[in-house]
Amino acid sequence: MAAFLCFAGMELIQNTADLSAYLAADEAIDHHHPVVRRTAGRLAAEATDSYDYARAAFAYVRDAVAHSQDSGDPRVTWRASDVLALGTGICHAKSHALAALLRAEDIPTALCYQRLTRDEGGHVLHGLVAVRFHGAWHRQDPRGNKFGVDARFSLTGERLAWTPDPAAGERDHPLLYAEPHPLVLAALRSARDRAHLWRTLPDSL
């Protein structure tokens, strides 16, 4: 396994050494789907380079796709094309959509996770992505901003939605996954609605 320093205090670790795995399509990151290709093409047409495209794709998923908890939308999405078509999803779904848009333009993108405290108590896994530029991985959080949350695209220092508090049982998971973690994907696929999903999302890997 290869590790790449992301920020002081933690290394991000590929769970596969094959970088091409972070460009692949799968059932959730279906970047060959026409909806994904159209969205990527529209964003790419206005971008000046790969960095500008990545920043635009991040902003699009963060701002144009509603976080279903914030908006009150009961629908559960998990496939990138559905997230983009319906314009809704939780953090994991939005991460799948961003990964698909970035991989559609040959930018290696990984899925990664944090363990955070739920508002109602307990813990839950939070999903975000890492993008590879300049020989290193950089985490980005497209979950969507709200009061108290100001996540931004950055390669010069993380601008994530949250910083885990170890004293509260929170943590960053350093592994970079080429595919959605099976526990997360199983919960998304089996959920009848967002309320059901909220009860079944894993709280650890």
UniProtKB/TrEMBL annotation:
InterPro entries: Papain-like_cys_pep_sf, Transglutaminase-like. Gene3D superfamilies: 3.10.620.30. Residues 38-142 form the Transglutaminase-like domain. It comes from the Bacteria. Pfam families: Transglut_core. This is Transglutaminase. It comes from Streptomyces capoamus.
